[in-house]
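Researcher: Go.
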Amino acid sequence: MKVYCLSEDPNKPCFVIKLKSVTIMLDCGLSAHSVLNFLPLYPIPDWKPNKAAAWIPKNFSDPQIEGELNECMTNQVLVNSAPEFMTPLTKLVDFADIDVILVSNYMTMLALPFITENTGFKGVVYMTEPTLHIGKLFLEELVDFVEQSPKPNVAKYWKEILHLLPPPLCNSFKPHTWKQLYSLAQVNSSLTRVQMISYDQKIEITGALTVTAVSSGYCLGSSNWVIYLESKKLVYVSNTSTLTTHPRPMDQFNLKNADLMLLSSLTQAPAANPDTMLGELCLSVAVTLRNNGSVLIPCYPSGVVYDLFECLSSHLDSTALGQIPMYFISPVAHSSLEYSNILAEWLSQSKQNKVYFPEEPFPHAQLVKSGRLKHFKHVYTDDLWNDLRQPCVVFCGHPSLRFGDVVHFVEYWGTNPQNTIIFTEPEFPYLEALAPFQPLSMKAMHCPIDTSMNFTQANKMIKDLKPAVLILPERYAIPPTGFGHKNEFVIDQIDRKVLTIRRGEVISEKLDIKTVNVPFTTEMVVSVTLNELQSGLKASKFTAVLDTKDNKYKLDILRDDLLANKTTEPYLLETLFKKTYEWGQLDIDRFLRALTNEGVSDPKIEHNAHGYTIHLKSEDTLIQVDDKSTHIFCEKMDKNWRLKLRSIVMECLNSF
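Model: Structure:
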């Protein structure tokens, strides 16, 4: 088995594994961290605050670089162009060879159009129903954000002079591989390749192996994957949570005792407790609102935002601020709110129970009905500004602050020190996100909320699941930057074989498959008669044809057409109709006597650690015998001698 790592960020994973003749891609995450190197796209046309001046390196003059770079008030240099994203590696694996893509959740499918479109991809993509529908919302929102503010120019030359640029731009990771975003047509085309599956449903892949999705507890429809190959079991653990939130709880049972586990997507905020961060967020929102300020929360259109609606509305009620309106602004806001309430089977038990009362499983349905939570498609719609009442709380994207409606609100509210922006997504360093908007008077808070497992929880899970081999990103073997030698932020590498992998690396792991299940046809079963060899042991001899097709095997009865075939070798027919079957070890004394009877007078025996070697010099033949096998190397080009030698060996074995 070979494992290929195509991603730089363990939280935007993309792996490819090759098993037997099958090539499987595990997730296709899209890293958006690269967009922080670009100027923001303003959602309202012709409204672009002049906070960044044109910049070129000192003592450098080349007309190609003009207009490509701008310097912010914080002296950070950004690219003036449409944003570009870090996609999975394209040259390590030919995407046309991929048979199957297994998607764990809607956050790890955002590079799907880059994989399936214009690459020769002919395979199938498997994911759960919520992953498909919510992932579609994420893809559509991302395209809408970028396309609503198109940049007339595409900056390229800056990538040729990285050594002349200031940090962090000069430290960009392989910017030549970054790509501009796909189109909506490519999104729709890629989603036509998706087949929806349910938890615990067994999917057969080209007859060679079986895959099953089990709940990971991270978000609606999120999955871990179990792959069965003959007697071997492999598990892929992506974003997984043991916390009690709105999704169905994690299924650990099906992950136990795997021969190999591939781990990715642990928390991006290892030092931050989600409950503590949520509490701090609620307190900060309440304080801001009491001081007549408004709160801006950059967010994605699904996921943690549902929990924020629930917890924040409850906290505001308890602090006599229940009259404060909340606004959810996204081109897919309506679809997200509606769809989340019809996914009962994918929810936690407490949420499912509400459906049968009947109640909406999420409080935001009631918040919308009562008018406390209002949703709008875009910041530039008249309906929003006719309705907007301050102080208020606004949820909108994108968390990078480089495109989307949040860009306008940062500029609109940024000059008022009573307002607060609260960052909950740990993916983007908030100071880098704010850099092009400085100087800002509004307060900024960082409350990263990541419900994925932390390292302590992951180590406990691994200990309980007992995988024989563990493969993990190289980053998980060393403490994160800024945390020194704290072992609570690394994965333990004791009691099992551990392999680390990084972007562009390929590792091989041998799967010692000793047995293959071969079923009998019904006719074959009827033809078999068991004979008792000794007390408690029965056996049967039979002649059958081994049929192999699409990586599947079966034993069938011998058909008349094979017997009637004139090209069938006589010795094969002899084998088909033989009356005895051999087993056990070679009787060496009997074998030597049989050779002498056949006129072979010069056998030479050499003993070794595993058995012995018999050299028949006159016949130019070497016979190696050990506990489990007999190998004959015959240079003599005499078919009759080969058949005779074979018969002698068979006579010197036990038979029934």
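Model: The longest strand covers residues 209-215.
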